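Why predict the complex rather than its parts? Because the way molecules touch one another can change local conformation, and only a joint prediction can capture that. The input here totals 768 residues.
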Amino acid sequence: MSEERARGGPRQASAIFAATLELLAERGYDGLTIESIASRSGVNKTTIYRWWPAKDAVLAAALVHSDLLAFAMPDTGSLRGDLLALARAITQLLTAEQTAPIVATVLAAAPRRPELAAVARTFFAERLSREQPMFQRAIARGELQTTADPAMIMDLLAGAIWFRILLRDQPVSPDYLSGAVDLVLQGAAAAH
Amino acid sequence: MSEERARGGPRQASAIFAATLELLAERGYDGLTIESIASRSGVNKTTIYRWWPAKDAVLAAALVHSDLLAFAMPDTGSLRGDLLALARAITQLLTAEQTAPIVATVLAAAPRRPELAAVARTFFAERLSREQPMFQRAIARGELQTTADPAMIMDLLAGAIWFRILLRDQPVSPDYLSGAVDLVLQGAAAAH
Amino acid sequence: MSEERARGGPRQASAIFAATLELLAERGYDGLTIESIASRSGVNKTTIYRWWPAKDAVLAAALVHSDLLAFAMPDTGSLRGDLLALARAITQLLTAEQTAPIVATVLAAAPRRPELAAVARTFFAERLSREQPMFQRAIARGELQTTADPAMIMDLLAGAIWFRILLRDQPVSPDYLSGAVDLVLQGAAAAH
Amino acid sequence: MSEERARGGPRQASAIFAATLELLAERGYDGLTIESIASRSGVNKTTIYRWWPAKDAVLAAALVHSDLLAFAMPDTGSLRGDLLALARAITQLLTAEQTAPIVATVLAAAPRRPELAAVARTFFAERLSREQPMFQRAIARGELQTTADPAMIMDLLAGAIWFRILLRDQPVSPDYLSGAVDLVLQGAAAAH
DNA sequence: CGATAAACGAGACGGTACGTCGCGTCTTGGT
DNA sequence: ACCAAGACGCGACGTACCGTCTCGTTTATCG
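Output of the joint prediction:
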């Protein structure tokens, strides 16, 4: 029952994925070439093409296979604490030296790259679904109205962080984060 | 005293810029090549390289030169109306057939491309400064507290729209927009 | 055991060589470009660069591969006859419609082009060594002194023809050839 | 009566010619570009094109204008001495550091470059005519038969040297030169 | 255990685009 | 009238990866 190789991948899939993410971090999306992945992972170019149609697909597979997209769902006892923890995790993802280039790259390529777009979409959808319990706990605690829209709350919070870091290129301070969380929470608390 | 050509650009700059944006919309960022710009604009490749070092620079110049980044600052009489108008304009920009491919592609590519990042940064900074009167009017009307942070409000609103359309790939309905505006406004209205 | 392709050359080497010599004859040395060779031979430019670093190398290989540099060593029974045959062959090479443009161009370019110079040097060295039997037969027949220097004799004879055709641009008549052969032979016959 | 500028040339012709020959010696024929001549001579590219159609023409004019092609006709008192002096001068021209690259270059380009070919042809023709007195003196002294062909003698001698240096890439020793002169002289002396 | 099919290594190839160089033409403006 | 300055179209350069394609050589699974 050697499960070492999943269906639909080459024998050295792990080496390929590792090389892919290394190179992506080192040289950026454009510096990431199939040939460099092949060379770095000690695999022949043909082998990669046998399994994936293009470098985006390799990258998508590498991301899914990696734990870069994994994140712990917080449970601090209060919605404010949970949202703050999430906001900090997002900020971390977008600024940490190892993850920032990868995440920026994937999002940049996503709009025109179905594979990467699918990864992003799936990631965010799954994330939202995993956030549901957090909001249900908050409702149970009376911290949130039943009518509140968790997706919108996360859009506002996560969007502000993404927007500020990637597009406005402005720092995201702890104060900014707590201010944004407060604003959104108070806004959601107000009756419709 | 024909001042027809600004300093630092080729004679057919306009044709080059037009071709650049057309091709960007048609083929996406990676499909946009210097040779295709040259061919489409009826200009020689060499001429483009004489003036810009890389395609990002051409693209940045084309964006600055275009009116895509122009936008009217609303003045509806209420902050809610103004923010809603802005939110609609942003949504429009990101979804309209002519602008969406260009804007989405540029914004997506910006984090990895210094020139494009600079354009985005400048654009958003200028935009924010032009939004100041809108917030000052709201404060004068008593719709907003003096302590409110306009930048954060715009980050939340614009970020949510951008995030939802480009990353989560979800529709942005009029109800969603007004809901988001309300949430943010009520959140900002609550005391700190 | 198909030995069809010699080591160190592309699969369509012959087509490339043929195109190279054709184009050299048609357009001269400077008009001979890698791109034109690629186009004419139906091979991609990249393929040529994969195997040769520059056009001189292609040209050198084409020359070596061709039979332009092949020549039959005469054996007419007398040194005078042999030298006359050689002189005629050289003249022919430098004036015949098919060979003249190629040979003249190559010889002219040789001094400035290491690869071509090497081809010329090798060719003339090999040629001289193949001429040795001719001179030995002449010595055996008593037509030539043992002290005579075959290399000098050939330098004088070949040099005169080459000089006259390529540099002085003057015709080389049969009378001129036999006159030159006679002069050299009689000079060589005289005691030192 | 300022004759400083000949008809059909720009004001800075001398600077252009000097730059041309310098660059030719420094960088070879291919490294000699119109743009580099213009830059070195402090003249605009346009000016050069106004007067000469291509770099060959500039080079031809520069050579004619220079004294590189000048040579003194020897008069040593004997034909053998005169020929030896000529042979040494030719060898010098082909091997001296300053002249060798220029001469090799011109001859290399000549076959396909009418301007340069004309320069070469003119040079050799004029040279031969200036050699006539040398042969007439020899005939007057009884060193040479009336029937001897001076052109052929010079073809053999000069051709051997050119051939040996440029094509066979072999050294030309003093012994070689005197041997060649002796051989040719004795051959010419023998009756037809 | 040995056949056989999948996976792989090696690398030549056609192709697109890159960014650069020098050519020769042209226009403009200044002596 | 001549020239400096320099933009321009053009052709070729040599390079980098792309994705495709044989062609043998492992592997590893199964009869």
